[in-house]
Write a structure and sequence with these properties.
Blueprint: H1 2-16, H2 19-45, E1 50-56, E2 71-76, H3 81-86, E3 96-100, H4 108-114, E4 116-119, H5 125-147, H6 151-158, E5 165-167, E6 173-175, H7 177-214, H8 217-222, H9 227-261, H10 264-270, H11 275-280, H12 284-297, H13 300-328, H14 332-353, H15 363-370, H16 375-382, H17 389-417, H18 427-435
Parallel strand pairs: 1-2, 1-3
Antiparallel strand pairs: 3-4, 5-6
Helix pairs in contact: 1-9, 2-9, 7-9, 7-13, 7-14, 7-16, 9-12, 9-13, 9-17, 13-14, 13-16, 13-17, 14-16, 15-16
Length: 436
């Protein structure tokens, strides 16, 4: 046991003392936010402003087509239509000419057939859809007038219905659309982070084992410690490295949410109306504050607890597999035929978790979060929505038992494989090592 502790300590300190680890741990959340901001700016930078000249032969659209920051309408006389079309190719001041024919006897189907948009550049899909929407709205108003129906009556018919949802299992707490969105995003984020970290740090263990084996360093180490102690020391050392990163990131996230949440009460007082009215008037900072408030309304101590427990057990479970693979092969090329057994269950759990948005308590969600091979990612994906305590306890017990069994199997493979050179390990040969 003392040797396991010493090896764990060495692996942990070797990693955390690196400048790259410190910088990545502290800057990763900031870099992630910055990356999202850059992506948003890239979309913003690629937005277009189109100038469309409109030939309104019907006279219905002159004062109805409203310009925006994305598209600008300029009404021109019908007499200039032909000359404008002829010079459009060389005219860089505008992007297109919208020719609207006359409406004969209220026949808008014929009007649609003869409407043309002539362009001298590539018009984006969203720009075309805006023009279609603007024309449709004007035609809709004209049809309403012909039917003799007041526009206010149509607006009243189109008015949406807001359904208030009260969850009796959560002390009659009201579930808003924003809260559901926050739960969904948090679920997918935690699940994806767990999936990626198990693979990244598991592969790190495998490569570390493989490197020591190929350098024959392991032969010297084995003379002082048992193979099982070496394997467990490596797994636990890297586990503590990952856990340290998570603790720092969780602390930064909670502190940030608490800071933003301080302004939530005053923000609600300053913005009258319901949730839809609030969200329509929020700027970026206020949206972040609203999201932070929704996060803090969740049972985040339980979410953090479940996240850490399932990540640790899931990581140890899969790292044992990766350590066994690293000891059984001689080079990284040979690892590909075995790592599939570790990746496939995780991928099954990850892609199955996407269905939790619609039904987190369904049979698929239940079984994926109970079966040990998929529970490290599936249970973490379910926990923001709320999971019964007995299901969490059952899943932990099954995962813990399976993890201990996997450590036992990996230890038997590691003991033989770490000193095997030149032989290409097969499943049949690995099975012999397990039985021996």
């Amino acid at each position: 046991m003392n040797n396991i502790f010493l090896i764990t300590k060495r692996e942990f300190l070797t990693q955390v003392k690196k400048k790259s680890f410190i910088v990545l741990t502290l800057l990763a959340p900031i870099l992630l936010i910055a990356f999202g901001a850059v992506i948003g700016l890239m979309f913003k930078a690629n937005e277009s402003h189109n100038i469309i000249e409109v030939v309104d032969n019907s006279g219905l659209f002159k004062n109805e087509l409203k310009s925006t920051d994305k598209i600008e309408y300029k009404i021109i006389p019908s007499s200039e239509e032909q000359s404008k079309v002829n010079t459009l190719k060389s005219n860089e001041a505008i992007d297109g000419i919208l020719v609207l024919p006359q409406v004969q006897n209220g026949n808008y189907d014929e009007f649609q057939k003869n409407t043309r948009l002539i362009v001298n550049t590539k018009i984006g899909f969203d720009t075309k859809q805006r023009i279609i929407s603007d024309l449709s709205n004007v035609i809709k108003k004209e049809k309403i007038k012909q039917l003799g129906i007041a526009e206010t009556q149509i607006d009243d018919l189109d008015k949406g219905f807001t359904l208030k949802t009260i969850n009796v299992s959560e002390n009659n707490k009201e579930d808003s659309d924003l809260a559901l969105g926050v739960k969904s995003v948090l679920s997918m984020l935690l699940m994806y982070v767990t999936f990626m970290f198990i693979i990244i740090y598991g592969v790190r263990v495998m490569r570390s084992v493989l490197e020591e084996k190929n350098n024959r360093v392991v032969e010297i180490i084995i003379s002082s410690v048992k193979p099982f102690e070496l394997m467990m020391g490596k797994i636990l050392g890297v586990t503590l490295v990952a856990l340290t990163q998570f603790i720092v990131w969780i602390t930064m996230s909670v502190v940030g949410a608490l800071v933003l949440n301080t302004g939530f009460s005053s923000m609600q007082k300053n913005i009258p109306g319901g949730e839809d009215a609030v969200m329509s008037k929020l700027d970026v900072t206020q949206i972040a504050t609203q999201v932070s408030h929704s996060l803090l309304e969740l049972n985040f101590p339980l979410i953090i607890f479940v996240f850490i427990i399932f990540f640790l057990l899931g990581y140890i479970f899969y790292s044992s597999i990766y350590a066994a693979i690293g000891s059984a092969v001689d080079n990284e090329t040979e690892t590909q035929q075995f790592t599939l057994f570790a990746v496939l269950p995780l991928m099954l759990g990850m892609y199955g978790s996407f269905s939790f948005i619609n039904n987190p308590d369904g049979p698929l969600g239940f079984w994926l979060s109970i079966i040990p091979f998929t529970s490290p990612v599936a249970m973490i994906a379910r926990i923001p929505y709320g999971v019964p305590v007995w299901q969490i306890a059952l899943s932990i017990v099954l995962l813990l038992g399976t993890t201990l069994f996997m450590i036992f199997l990996a230890g038997k493979i590691y003991r033989v494989g770490i000193l095997m050179y030149g032989n290409k390990a097969t499943l049949k040969e690995i099975w012999k090592w397990i039985k021996s």
